[in-house]
Amino acid sequence: MRRDVTPARRTPRRETRRARDARRTSATRDMTTRANRGATATATTTRMKTKMKMKMKMKTASTRATSSSDASSSAAAAKDEEDDCVLATKCARMANFVYKGGGVESWMADDGLQTKARGVTGATGWCVCDDVERNARFIVVRGAAWSQPDTDRNKLSWQIAKIWPQALRKDRKTPVVCHQGVYEMVEEFWRDLVPWLSDETFDGTYYFTGHSLGGSMGLVVAARARELGLEEARVGGVYTFGAPPVLAYDRLAGNGPGSSIDDEPEVGMDEILRLVGFTRGASLVKQYVLAKDVIPRMWLSADPVFVAATKTDFIGGLLDWRRETFGEGMFTKNRFLYESIGDLYWLEYADGEQGKPTLSRYGGDDVLTKLRMNLDDITQSPLTAWQTIGDHNSQAYVDALQFLTIRRVINPSKR
Q1: Count of CB atoms within 10 A of residue 137's CB?
Q2: How far apart are CA 358 and CA 400, in angstroms?
Q3: Tell me, what's the pLDDT at 261?
Q4: What is the mean pLDDT of residues 293-311?
Q5: To the nearest whole number, what is the mean pLDDT of the chain?
Q6: 114, 125 in Cβ contact below 8 A?
Q7: What SS3 string covers the chain?
Q8: In this structure, are residues 267 and 322 in contact, taking their beta carbons and an 8 Å threshold?
Q9: pLDDT category, 33, cuts 50, 70, 90?
């Protein structure tokens, strides 16, 4: 008989306290490890996010700083431009006031200027005015005032006709020449002007200005003031309005005896001004020209009569021969008698925009290119001929610059 034998059921061992404590300690350690790892990962992520935020902030700050710097630079440039336009307008008004005869002092006073001295010579007039607020002194020279009772018309005509160049400095060591008649007109009032140029009681800045021949003489006065000993740092600038050129490089004096055509240096307006003591070069002189004003082209290769003459076979061939034989200088296609000196501030009225002038600046070779005018531009109709006369009037320069100044102050976006 078979007997089933059922295995006895095992009774689990009872966990000892030591084992239980060990198991719990191990579990706790594992949980702590996992928690630490999680915390470390979270901290790492937080640090990375913080670094990224810092980088973004720094980048944003840098961008803002750059933008702010650019904006500040643009604002500063705009402010300088506005100040220069205001100063040019002030000079244009003074250059216009000296044509007013006996009422010069009151006109100047209306603009906040103190007239320190003035005089007339028969060919021209001049005055010295102080702007106390700016700590500036303005030397203002009058152009050709044919209708003024103190003008000797015969004398003025004769001085303008003396177009042949003479040495700017008496020692003849500086290779720069000047229109003889203009030099003599300055010489007439130079002694009266010297005390105001060497005035030890005045420590401010000097400006030289004038309209037409007055601007030309203003440039000559500035050059002679440097020769007198006036520091360049105290010369704020020369502002001319419709002024004809009266200075040029003296090629023969500059090259010296025994030099050849091949030795001839390239001398432009910058070098001419440096030769007379202005290291700033052309930027010293700001010549304002209304587009149809023919007078600033006089005695230049841009002169419309000279341009027409150079186009003829005879005159053109003669000038080419002159250059090939004797080199650059007077009476070549690139130079009539004198050279344009200074940066050109071009005032122009667009067609159909009478009363709304624009202002553009040109320098270097672009000056002569911009000034070039054909004879047909003047003679095509009585109206165009009249416009060349109207554009030269000193009041025309005042009107154009006053409009630009007012617009820049009232509506800066229209710069």
Answers
A1: 23
A2: 8
A3: 43
A4: 75
A5: 80
A6: no
A7: CCCCCCCCCCCCCCCCHHHHHHHHHHHHHHHHHHHHHHHHHHHHHHHHHHHHHHHHHHHHHHHHHHHHHHHHHHHHHHHHHHHHHHHHHHHHHHHHHCCCHHHHHHHHHHCCCEEEEEEECCCCEEEEEEECCCCEEEEEECCCCCCCCCCCHHHHHHHHHCCCEEECCCCCCCCEEEEHHHHHHHHHHHHHHHHHHCCCCCCCEEEEEEECHHHHHHHHHHHHHHHHCCCHHHEEEEEEECCCCCEEECHHHHHCCCCCHHHCCCCCHHHHHHHCCCCCHHHHEEEEEECCCCHHHCCCCCCHHHHHHHCCHHHHHHHHHHHHHHCCCCCECCECCCECCCEEEEEEECCCCCCCEEEEEECCHHHHHHHCCCCHHHHCCHHHHHHHHHHHCHHHHHHHHHHHHHHHHHCHHHC
A8: no
A9: low
Q: Are strands 176-179 and 235-241 parallel, antiparallel or unpaired?
A: unpaired
Token pair for 91: 């000079």
Higher local confidence (pLDDT), 148 or 95:
95
Tens-digit pLDDT profile for residues 74-87: 544 455 666 888 99
| Token reading at 300 | 């230049």
Rg (CA), the chain: 39
pLDDT band for 251, please (50, 70, 90 cuts). confident
Contact criterion met (CB below 8 Å) for 75 and 110: no
